[in-house]
Write a structure and sequence with these properties.
Belongs to the aldehyde dehydrogenase family. The protein is α/β, with parallel strands linked by helices. 37% of the residues lie in helices and 21% in strands. α3 crosses α7. The longest helix has 21 residues. Bound molecules: 2-aminohexanedioic acid.
Amino acid sequence: ATDFGIKEALQKLGVSDINHGTSTGSNNFGNGDLIESYSPVDGQLIAKVSTTTREDYDKVMDAATSAFKTFRAMPAPQRGEIVRQFGNKLRELKEPLGKLVSYEMGKSLQEGYGEVQEMIDICDFAVGLSRQLNGQVIPSERPGHVMREQWHSLGVVGIISAFNFPVAVWAWNTALAWVCGDTCVWKGSEKAPVCAVACQNIIAGVLKENNLPEGISCIVNGDYKVGEYITTDTRIPLVSATGSTRMGRIVGKTVAERFGKSLLELGGNNAIIITPTADLKVVVPGAVFGAVGTCGQRCTSTRRLIIHESVYDKVRDAIVGAYKQLTIGNPLDESNHIGPLIDKDAVNTYLAAIEKAKAEGGNVLVEGGVLEGEGYESGCYVKPAIIEAENHFEIVQHETFAPILYLMKYSGDVENAIDMQNGVAQGLSSAIMTNEMKEAEKFLSFAGSDCGIANVNIGTSGAEIGGAFGGEKETGGGRESGSDAWKIYMRRQTNTINYSDELPLAQGIKFDL
Ligand code: UN1
């Protein structure tokens, strides 16, 4: 098979055959079993990464805790300078890192580069933010008094991320956490451990060049048990977790039990409403990229199209037509639109979902199935499917991390479509395609979409980093990335200062001695 420059990419990223999946200070190690990472692209072994034992973990926490003391004392703009340097390293290494993401996770090379671009963008955002961690000055009701609000560094932030964005989600969290003065312990996905090693190598280099402790950025590696070390650890005031609703329910509960904060980024069940005035030139690429991009493994992937009955046939035919042009194959080959699913378990889940949809009465418009033969040896390549379904089907109510798109009809007003769009347990991303101003504004109003993300005339996936990213209901309620999402990485302190010679009490209370 053609190498597509993978060996060279791994070399540039400092990845060897066997890698340390644990980091502390200047000393990287990991005494647990080795995880072998196989590429879903060609089934080949990429590298081995050691897992983190409990003893390893405690050493990491010592390093992260002591680094916090140094880091929080550094002026925020100087911390921003570290993030600026990290962003520049990412610019230099965009090609090899993007390739590794594509090879280990299976997303198209374009999307692999896009993911690294998101990292660069959030670094730029964080650098600016490092001079804007502003509190407020609040008028006091008492003479000779002033009130102030300050934002202080929080501590060690635990980050648990998923396989589908194996590098960007970490960066959304760390870039902000670092300018806020926090140190980070990251458990990446055990399905993409090499990506985490590559990221750690990059930041470790930057920290070393600046004579800063590596404890500012730590990785740990392993399954849910290593995640449990983080969620139960009272030394970690904030846990940011991205993944399934099932995982988030456990993480949220465990962290809340010890009064920690959690930032949860969980499942989506994202829909596009297609109204009678929708422009097909926008609808078709928006819906198709949303449904099949990253092989349907984004939390923002389009799962449902809610189409007005008057344009249903036209839209259905256009989408089905577009699916005929999709090419499935090695994602490093830029002529392919779609790469593989992450692993064979994902393939089985995909197949089971199609069967379930059929059993519930779904009508298959574009057949799914697993691809076989040359180029598909890994067994992870599947055909994107389209199924006409009803919103109440059990399978439609669930998020299946695969390229399965459900089509459904609405009649009458846009309110009916909004009811269907909101009629699921998840609340991440949503979109409406319309040229009617009133419909668009209704969709964006309090009575419209109940999701954290609501778009007009673009699809559900591919959010920019400048906005706060996250969703409601079973999506977990967290917001990360842009806007004022940084505030969760800091602790707020309210100060009242008396510069008078008297001590008047608030609320006019008299207390004469
Ligand atoms: C995810 O799938 O976990 O909006 C994140 C998007 C990307 C991020 C997705 N910027 O699709």
